[in-house]
Amino acid sequence: MIDHNQGKLILRTGRIACYPVAVNYKIRATTGADAEAIQSVAMRAWENTYRDLVPEASRREYLDKAYSLDWLRQCHQRSDLRGFLLDQDGQPAGFAMLSLGDPAEDPPGAVLRSLYLLPEAQQQGQGKKMLDAVIAAARAAGAPWLWVAVHGELKAARAWYEKNGFAYDGPAETTMGHEKVKMAVYRLPLHHYAKH
Ligand SMILES: CC(C)(COP(=O)(O)OP(=O)(O)OC[C@H]1O[C@@H](n2cnc3c(N)ncnc32)[C@H](O)[C@@H]1OP(=O)(O)O)[C@@H](O)C(=O)NCCC(=O)NCCS
After folding, report:
1. How far apart are the first and last CA of the chain?
2. How does residue 7 score in pLDDT terms, banded at 50, 70 and 90?
3. Which of the listed residues 46, 59, 120, 123 should we mutate to test ligand 1's pocket, taking the one with most ligand atoms within 8 A of CB?
4. Local structure of residue 58 (DSSP, 8 states)
5. On the CB side of 127, how many CA atoms lie within 13 Å of its CA?
6. pLDDT at 50 over 90
7. Cα torsion angle, 139, 142, 144, 146, sign
8. Could you tell me if residue 12 is inside a domain?
9. Which of 94, 110, 114, 170 fits 138 for a cystine, CB–CB 3.0-4.6 Å?
10. At 173, which CATH number?
11. pLDDT tens across 132-184, in order?
12. Pair 152, 184: CB distance under 8 Å
């Protein structure tokens, strides 16, 4: 559902009843006012995702920079970035950040910079709904591709992207704190992507 009337973009709403406790959820565009919510989800999701892959000091160093409240607020001033928040029963449970990219860049396309759900919000189909919202925004901006770089050792996330139509493009390297990290780059052609 898209509701522009209340100054809020509600991208998708629904009700998940597959689990013992039914959950009302909504995916909406973020603003700078969501910086605390994004930061708190990132802290917990990162601990859960990377605790066996990235030493704590490096995780901390990276989070302190990439998820500082100042930086998150600045990101929301930029016209090339779009944030998405998963709200479950009024509580933030996940977020995504999309960079729309520069069409003159080689290769051209949008980049999914982050997608993190709290552990208890995973495996309920909501990551896929977040991804659908991200893809719709990238497509609406005319991006020919959606790119994502995943930690090379995150086998579950890599399989998840592959299941959702992304093709492996090759390796890349980045740094998390002091750690050099091998990443796996994936791409999704937006013009061929068929929703399923
Ligand atoms: C990777 C991630 C975004 C995937 O989102 P998710 O919501 O957990 O994934 P989905 O629910 O869409 O799909 C996962 C599985 O749940 C299943 N599923 C979908 N709907 C379901 C439902 N209603 N009830 C139960 N299971 C369901 C899917 O079939 C899928 O099964 P399979 O992959 O085991 O075959 C999420 O797990 C996450 O944030 N992980 C930690 C951070 C991370 O790795 N991020 C990616 C790096 S950028």
Report:
1. 18
2. very low
3. 123
4. H
5. 18
6. yes
7. negative
8. no
9. 110
10. 3.40.630.30
11. 999 999 999 989 999 999 999 999 999 999 999 999 999 999 998 888 999 99
12. yes
Q: Is residue 10 part of a domain?
A: no
pTM above the 0.85 mark?
Answer: yes
Residue 10 has pLDDT above 60, yes or no: no
Side chain identity at residue 183, one-letter code: M
**17 inside domain:** no
Output the residue whose Cα is nearest ligand 1's atom 44: 157
Q: How far is the CA of 187 from the centre of ligand 1 (A)?
A: 18
> Domain limits at 181?
30-84+91-189
Beta sheet of 23-29, edge-to-edge order:
10-16, 23-29, 81-88, 91-99, 110-117, 145-151, 179-189, 167-176
Q: Please tell me if the CB atom of residue 93 comes closer than 6 angstroms to any atom of ligand 1.
A: no
List 87's β-bridge partners, or say none.
Answer: 26, 92
Instruction: Give 78-90 pLDDT, tens digit per residue.
Output: 999 999 999 999 9
Beta bridge partners of 110: 146
| Per-residue pLDDT reduced to its tens digit, 117-145 | 999 999 999 999 999 999 999 999 989 99
Give the Cα separation of 87 and 70 in Å (integer). 22
- Output the pLDDT for position 103: 62
Angle of helix 56-66 versus helix 35-50 axis, rounded to 10: 160
**50 within domain boundaries:** yes
Looking only at the bridges linking them, the beta strands covering 110-117 and 91-99 are antiparallel
